[in-house]
Write a structure and sequence with these properties.
This protein is an alpha/beta fold. It has 10 helices and 12 strands. Helix 5 (about 155-160) links the parallel strand 8 (about 145-150) and strand 9.
Length: about 260
């Protein structure tokens, strides 16, 4: 056999082997169909998006959306709980099929994961103790003001951008830990979204929202880059429930009001 023929044969065999391997690789959606289970990664403490209610049941806006989708797909929903900074590693390692959280699709995050179309939107606000003396978020931009935000969150990134002179302190465990830091005096103010802080204000009388919005951001769920079928399925499902009114009902109950507190806190 000539050398050129041998090389051609070897290359062709290698290409066929790679194609065969690729054809046998199971997609995330195929795994969901085969096992009858869909696994989501959620934040540990993130009311009203994901939290454990007074009855010890995991619930929240993202949980109910994911559960509704799983029910319509006729599969079992498996919920895995992580701190905020553990969500992306859990997805990337294959422990979860997608992230169901109030996550902002930043350019940096898109280098690791793929976001769905925006499911809802957040309004970033600043809060402090009522007797802090602050009235607007702009007053926080000083080196002697410590501002708390969830670790590795878009709120922390917003603080770096619009409050560059403030002393940023990042806390693991979600907004609950940031609120606790402000109440205990470990931070003079904190950043979060308007809906989340509204939930805390009903039970923590010491805090107030400062005037003005720091940012408005789209929020979505996220999949691995190799999970395009699942990504398209989530996008399609959100369009379906937006069209039939179920998404607006969930948004009104969980995100645009504090009606959920009477049932869950």
């Amino acid at each position: 056999m000539k050398l050129t023929s041998l090389i051609t044969t070897t290359v062709s065999a290698a290409v066929l082997a790679l194609a065969s391997t690729a054809s046998w690789a199971e997609t995330t959606m195929e795994k969901i169909v085969r096992t009858g289970e869909m696994t989501i990664a959620v934040q540990t403490q993130g009311p009203p998006v994901s939290f454990v209610n007074k009855d010890g049941v995991r619930t929240g806006f993202a949980i109910e959306l994911a559960q509704m989708m799983a029910d319509d797909m006729e599969v079992t929903l498996i919920i895995q709980d992580y701190d905020w900074k553990g969500l992306i590693p859990a997805l990337s390692s294959g422990k979860a099929d997608f992230i169901a959280a109030d996550m902002t699709p930043t350019a940096k995050r898109h280098m690791q994961i793929i976001f769905t179309e925006p499911v809802f939107f957040s309004e970033t606000i600043a809060f402090s103790l009522k007797d802090s003396g602050y009235t607007t978020w702009q007053e926080l931009n000083s080196a002697d003001v410590s501002v708390g935000a969830t670790q590795a969150s878009s709120w922390a990134e917003t603080a770096r951008k619009v409050l560059p002179d403030a002393d940023l302190k990042e806390f693991a465990g979600g907004t609950a830990q940031v609120v606790q830091a402000v109440v205990s005096g470990r931070a003079k103010a904190g950043l979060s979204d308007k809906a989340t802080i509204a939930g805390f204000m009903s039970s923590i009388e010491e805090i107030k929202v400062l005037d003005g919005l720091l940012a408005q951001e789209p929020l979505g769920f996220a999949t691995r880059p190799d999970s395009m079928h699942l990504l398209l399925a989530i996008n399609n499902y959100m369009r379906l429930i937006r069209a039939d009114g179920r998404l607006d009902q969930k948004l009104e109950y969980w995100w645009n009001s504090t009606a959920w507190e009477a049932d869950h806190k």
